[in-house]
Amino acid sequence: MLRTTLVAICLAFVPVISASASALASGSIPASVDAYVERYRAATGLPGVEVAITKGGKVIHANGYGKTATGERVTADTPMAMASVSKSFTALAVMQLVEKGKVALDQPVCRYLPEFTMADPRAAKITLRQLLNQTSGMADSAFHEKSLPQPGTLEGAVARLKTAKLATPPGTAFSYHNTNYQVAARLVEVVSGEPFAAYLHAHVFTPLGMGNSKTVDTDRDLPGSARGHLVLLGRAVAVPEPAGFGNGSGGVLSTANDMARWLIAQNNGILSRESIKEMRTPSEQNQEYALGWMIGTTERGTPVIEHDGDLFTSTAAQLLMPEPGYGVAVMANTGTAYGDADALMDGIVAMIEGGAPQIPSSPPYLVTDILFTLLTLATAGLAVRGVARSRRWAATSGAWRRWRLLPYLGPLALCIMIVPVMRVLLRGGDIRWIQVVYLYPTFMVWLVTASAAGLTVVTARLWGTARLRRQ
User: Fold this and answer.
1) Which of 70, 90, 282, 383 is buried most deeply by CB count within 10 Å?
2) Terminal Cα-to-Cα distance of the chain (whole angstroms)
3) Is the pLDDT of residue 182 over 70?
4) In this structure, are 207 and 336 located in the same domain?
5) Residue 27: pLDDT band with limits 50, 70, 90
6) What range does the domain containing 218 cover?
């Protein structure tokens, strides 16, 4: 897409900040990371971010930078949205039940959750493992989870599946679909007899000392510290997250200090070795996705276990490097269009491996935003000119010329069809109109302006023609 292409061009000209591996090993990593994060924020306009770095059983660094959407200072104890990083927590909750013998990964979900039914008989064969490794057969292409009315509870998230169908037979294809994890979280509720938020509090957050962490249901439950921004013309603008349900799939709120404890616990007895191995074993359908974790490597080839998360106004990322023993978590209060959490994560990993992180030379998409802003102003000006000259146009045009008005309605047609178009571009991924606005704000401002301008010009010219006929 346009923004992705622009980023690739910009990154070819970005400066770097050096940090040697010996400096990190000697204990100067806090100062090095602080300098890197502050330079990154200055270059991009990122309002607020938290970072946690661990090694083995020790916290190397945990800090907060900048401001929240409500203007408060971000600290290492400021709750921020973890988005889809939450899937790792849901998978852990399920594995705890597996270890207690209450559920089995390869048994049908409906055995433990009778309320889980779909308008597709194949759904009865979906196993708990298939929910967690995203091979259940549920997919955005068959069930528009984002654009349908949003539930308010996990029970409601499962209930709305009664009329849904599968995209593929269970266990045959990978499809990243948030509903998988909402069903898994509801299963935890039913099997444990505790609300999912209470279960995580009692069995995950409290035992790990994550006193500032919790999970929420919807965007309405996000506290001010967890709300985020769009970046327009290089300036961050605080905006509410589009309405959506996220518990189980993206509802966890946490802090740098809490995430440091979480990262340490991944290799420190949170589960048995067998369960940890199970969680890090990918499916045959996708060798890069396991149970709530992704399997990959760094640019230098170091194996990593990771998972990122994207809301439309904030992002998060977590990563484990099993061989050197490092763990990293980043939370940023700008949305998925900017990818700040992932970018900062990449920079910190580069520093850990003795490389030099990249610093963008300007705020993301600044040139694109300027171009579309100018295009919007030009479009409005041309519309005024077109309306002013509509009487003259009507006086000099024949019937054949009126067909030439059709292209003026092109932007309106695109504006109406933008959701289906985006679904094609996203290869079946679901999205709502307002979410497209959050992804491409200045483009959508231009498109709406062009739609209104084209419709106004066409109306004015046809009205002028009708008046001349009456005269």
Assistant:
1) 90
2) 51
3) yes
4) yes
5) low
6) 14-92+189-352
